[in-house]
Write a structure and sequence with these properties.
The structure is a single chain. This protein is an all-beta fold and about 425 residues long. The chain has 2 domains: about 110 residues, Immunoglobulin-like; about 300 residues, Methylamine Dehydrogenase, Chain H (7 Propeller). The chain has 1 helix and 36 strands. Strands 18, 19, 20, 21 and 22 form a 5-stranded antiparallel sheet that branches. Strands 1-29-28-27 form a 4-stranded antiparallel sheet, with no helix packed on it. The protein has a 4-stranded antiparallel sheet with strand order 2-3-4-5, with no helix packed on it. Strand 14 and strand 15 form a beta hairpin. The longest helix is centred in the first third of the chain and has 13 residues. The chain is globular and about 80 Å long. The two termini are about 30 Å apart.
């Protein structure tokens, strides 16, 4: 076919769609307009969100309905952690007079939040920010002004964690994550001084801080495990460095820091799939997303320009994010049930779905359904109509198919997916951004 034919198809598709829109995050009904700072979901349906004024809300149906849980507190809740559907913990701050006590309150539930108990942390003027439990007894907390403690009796007593000496070993903790019961990390640091990552390989009995030669310039707010060797932390500086990532490929023995070129601080990260991760960057009112294990990043304005502070994916299809003004966003990816064919081919013969992700950086997945068995040709053309890849050219049975396309050295631009079934044709555009 001629080059002009493909250019016409591309123009039609561009006119009918927004090049940079992404329709997977949707704002859902929120039970409050208060600042929501933290969330925790145990599966795609059951979860909690919490924030200012001591508010905790629970959903069992994926955010369709929310129930307020009574905490007996008006303090702002900074962090939620649930060990399972019944046992949960929360950290709240009393940082205003006239309470007579300034510091951290620890909230606990053993019945899924139907009842919460509250207790002052032992030391005044300590503001915990991170909490994590390995089981019902062993847990960890950290926060300002450089406090790192552990419990072996379910939180009845807290003692200072055993930390190896180091230049930044007693900086504040922002978060925890564990790969298994023995191997985990804490992350944190001090703004405009240095970021810190602590590692444990014996279940938190002792922790080793990052070698100063690898320390990033600002706090590390969250940690993600790809596997036992490959780990990523995120953070940044709103004034100068912007969003940064710090990665290790040798189980934390050495680290590499990278600035992604986006202003702000990445406060939390969660991966939807093995290679696709999303960060919330509240000062920029943006998401940043990676589709290649953090090698490169794409910025997305969130759906209503709200400042987001926490994010989680429960599986590859469902995610949640929360932030200011009570905003709750939900990610729910579904393949479209029908497709508009540029050549008016009846959709009951075959369907070519929009590739995902789109736009993409290095790789994307092309999905299609075959309703009538026949010879299938799947090809990729550039915007000049030149064939650059032949992904399939064989007989297909009825069924659903997914093919991952790696862009290789091809430059940024608009590309065309062309699917043929015998003599019938469908086409869709995709956008490569590098």
């Amino acid at each position: 076919m001629s080059k002009n034919f493909f250019l016409v198809i591309i123009l039609i598709v561009i006119i009918s769609s927004n090049l940079f829109s992404q329709n997977f995050w949707k704002r859902i009904k929120s039970p409050t307009d208060a600042f929501l700072r933290t969330l925790h979901f145990t599966d795609s349906l059951k979860g909690w969100v919490a924030g200012d004024s001591g508010l905790i809300f629970y959903t069992s149906d994926g955010g369709i309905n929310w129930t307020e849980q009574q905490t007996g507190s008006m303090n702002r809740i900074m962090k939620l952690f649930f060990l399972d559907e019944m046992r949960g913990h929360a950290i709240s701050w009393q940082d205003k007079e006239p309470s007579g006590f300034l510091g951290t309150y620890l909230l606990e539930t053993t019945d899924g939040g139907l009842n919460w108990t509250s207790e002052q942390y032992r030391d005044e003027n300590v503001f915990m920010r991170a909490i994590y439990f390995l089981d019902t007894l062993k847990g960890f907390m950290g926060g300002e002004p450089g406090v790192f403690v552990t419990t072996s009796d379910g939180g009845l007593n807290w003692v200072d964690a055993n930390i190896d000496s180091g230049t930044f070993s007693h900086f504040p903790v922002k978060n925890f994550d564990f790969y298994n019961d023995e191997y985990g990390y804490a992350s944190g640091g001090r703004f405009d001084i240095a970021g810190v990552i602590w590692r444990t390989t014996n279940g938190g009995n002792n922790w080793t801080p990052i070698d100063p030669q690898f320390s990033p310039p600002d706090e590390v707010w969250d940690i993600h495990f790809f596997d036992s060797l490959n780990v990523m932390g995120v953070g940044g500086d709103p004034d100068f460095f912007g969003v940064g990532t710090i990665t290790s490929t040798d189980a934390g023995n050495s680290w590499e820091y990278f600035e992604i070129g986006v202003s702000g601080i990445a406060r939390a990260i969660s991966f939807r799939t093995e290679d696709e991760g999303w960060c919330v960057v509240p000062l920029s009112e943006n998401f940043v997303a990676t589709f290649d294990y953090g090698k490169s990043w794409t910025t997305y304005q969130d759906v209503d320009s709200s400042a987001l502070y926490d994010i989680t994916f429960t599986d590859s299809l469902t995610g949640y994010a929360v932030g200011q003004d009570g905003v709750i966003l939900k990610y729910k990816y579904q393949k479209p049930s029908s497709v508009k064919s540029e050549t008016n081919v009846p959709v009951n013969d075959f369907i070519l779905y929009q590739n995902y992700p789109n736009p993409f950086n290095s790789s994307t997945t092309i999905s299609y359904s075959i309703e009538s068995a026949g010879k299938v040709s799947l090809k990729i053309y550039n915007e000049l109509g030149m064939l650059i890849d032949n992904l399939s050219d064989d007989y297909h049975q009825i069924g659903d198919y997914d093919i991952k396309w790696n862009s290789g050295d091809h430059p940024s631009g608009i590309y065309l997916i062309q699917l043929r079934l015998d003599s019938k044709l469908q086409a869709r555009k995709m956008i490569l951004l590098k």
